């Protein structure tokens, strides 16, 4: 009997201690809130803190209930604790609703007013968005459709290309006939350039990589010089450089040809590289990127004892990574796609013929090569053969663009150093 009384007394003491502990925690939080309310005039902050206090009060009650529930052995007391907890939580939620009622009412009034005022402009925005989407869709179809048609036609059979049959937007039979005919035509020496298909691609890769690397070096040095060396002639130099962009490249071909012949570089790999050493567009991109690094960075590097070369190599160059990558890709695509200049400077039996020259050669291809390529009426114009060559030629650049298009756009639109 005495033990039972002692356990009840101990339980009662523990319950009082728990109640006192959690009451003190809540009073401390409430005191902090009242101090903030007196010292701050920020209504939003006070509202947030009041919300936090009410949430803390609920959490506090939950914790107190759990502690009391653990030490209580009486079933009726446990039931009483559960009921009182649920009632207190309900009272708190009702109290919070009335506390925030005025604020919520004002917010709803403002929302309704704003929506009614913006209704007309919202309709206009929706109509403009729809028209913009339709316009972009039409432009996308116009741009993408030639590529779609080229790739699908390269996989068509000659029977699918019969002009007497209705043309479909999807091949009836997928076939590699055009690609086989392309290899047969080139290997049969009917093409005026005596080079195999793999050699065409190898030549293009070698020439594009070398000319791109050298062009990048020239563009970086020229851009750095324009950005960092102040002279009275700088404005004149920029005007001259940018004015060359208005001259079509084809207008310069004859002068370049005569110059290369005098240097005895006709039918030489150097003749395919030297004209691509400089690119005004990439030089301008580089100069703008270097200028936007900021004078303070250069001044700080001088204070740290860095020479001009070390500043260029360690600070300026890493700061324009996106522009460097953009210039590299633009130069590579430009060199890869060059067709007029190589056909002028190289002989028909040259070992340095490139992929665009292969396309130039198959423009006059006929169907009767290496056996039956197709129907007799299509022998004059084997479209699947020609478009198979076109598909192969754009494939490397297309893959590269798919993986780097974001870098190209970032480099062109930003055109500035990344400060780090």
Task: Describe this entry's structure for a reader.
With 420 residues, the chain is mainly alpha-helical. The protein folds into two domains: 2-120, no CATH class; 155-414, Orthogonal Bundle (MetI-like fold), CATH 1.10.3720. 74% of the residues lie in helices and 0% in strands. The longest helix has 80 residues, at 75-154. The relative contact order is 0.09. Mean pLDDT is 77; it is low at 1-6, 368-379 and 416-420. Its main location: membrane. Residues 201-404 form the ABC transmembrane type-1 domain.
Q: Give helix and strand order, one letter per element, not per position.
A: HHHHHHHHHHHHHHH
Low-confidence spans: pLDDT under 50, at least 5 residues?
1-6, 368-379, 416-420
Strand content is under 5%
Helical fraction equals over 70%
Task: Name the CATH superfamily classification of the largest domain.
Answer: MetI-like
The number of distinct β-strands equals 0
Mean pLDDT: 77
Number of separate structural domains: 2
